[in-house]
Amino acid sequence: MALPSVVVGLMIDTSRAFRFPSELIKLVRAVYEASDVDETRWIEWKSRLDLTGNNVVHHLVRQILGCANREPAVAERWAGGYAYILIGVSPGQLYGVQAVDPEQVVSKIRPYVGSEIVWTPEYVSVDGVDVLVVIIDPPQNGDMIRTLRKALQPYEAGTVLTRRPGQVERADPDEMIMLQKRLMAGPTQVGVSVILRRRWNERQTALQLSRNTRLRLGKRVWRFWARSLPRFKGLTL
């Protein structure tokens, strides 16, 4: 059953994802006008953070892993399941950041979170300052349990973090069971049907192409021998 459009905490429609720059700017403005208690399972903000320092690594690694380890059915209640980390803005404060090459940010974070989690750093300009918005793709049934790939104080490699309302913590036993069930769930039945139907269509297309190719080759071989037959008249073996 489709979830209704809702406004949760922030004064903005969270019934669909924020993807375009104009939508991200609206999200930044909504955070600026929010209260300090409006952080939930899908959004996190920091008013000030040096993107060239170590603190940004610690912050982003925790948030990315935590958001990637959410329960899909819970995550999809907001913004289509996407999660957002905003740096340079908080309620009543818009400081912005000193922008750095996004690839530098990615290269610092990837050793800790791996390459399977899909996340994207984007900059948007609001009232003359740049705000970093990190967009994290929705968790899906069948996803692996996302673990810390490299030790990051105070966490050892292999730590499982998960996002709770307004915070990221080590997964407790109940949350580990949820993540195991998510892993075992795999794609939905609809998703499986779509995949099988696509593969069937691709196979039928390949067979038809193969049949057409054989027919064309057969005609070419026949024409070749028809043209060559006079050359062999009078020859004896």
Q: What labels describe this entry?
A:
single chain; 237 residues; Methyltransferase, Cobalt-precorrin-4 Transmethylase, Domain 2; four-stranded mixed beta sheet; 41% helix
Please explain how this structure is put together.
- The chain has two domains: 21-186, Methyltransferase, Cobalt-precorrin-4 Transmethylase, Domain 2 (2-Layer Sandwich), CATH 3.30.950; 191-232.
- The longest helix is centred in the C-terminal third of the chain and has 40 residues, at 189-228.
- With 237 residues, it is of the alpha+beta class.
- A hairpin with a 2-residue loop joins strand 3 (89-90) and strand 4 (93-94).
- Helices cover 41% and strands 16% of the residues.
- Helix 2 packs across helix 4.
- The strands form three sheets. Strands 1-2-6-5 form a four-stranded mixed sheet, sandwiched between helices.
What Rg, in angstroms, do the CA atoms define? 27 Å
Strand content: 15-25%
The main sheet orders its strands as 1-2-6-5
Kindly report the oligomeric state of this protein.
Answer: single chain
Which structural class should the secondary elements be placed in? alpha+beta
Q: How do the helices and strands follow one another from N- to C-terminus?
A: HEHHEEEHEEEEHH
pLDDT < 50 stretches: 1-8
Instruction: Please state the second-level CATH architecture of the largest domain.
Output: 2-Layer Sandwich
Number of helices: 6
CATH class descriptor of the largest domain: Alpha Beta
Q: At the third CATH level, what is the topology name of the largest domain?
A: Methyltransferase, Cobalt-precorrin-4 Transmethylase, Domain 2
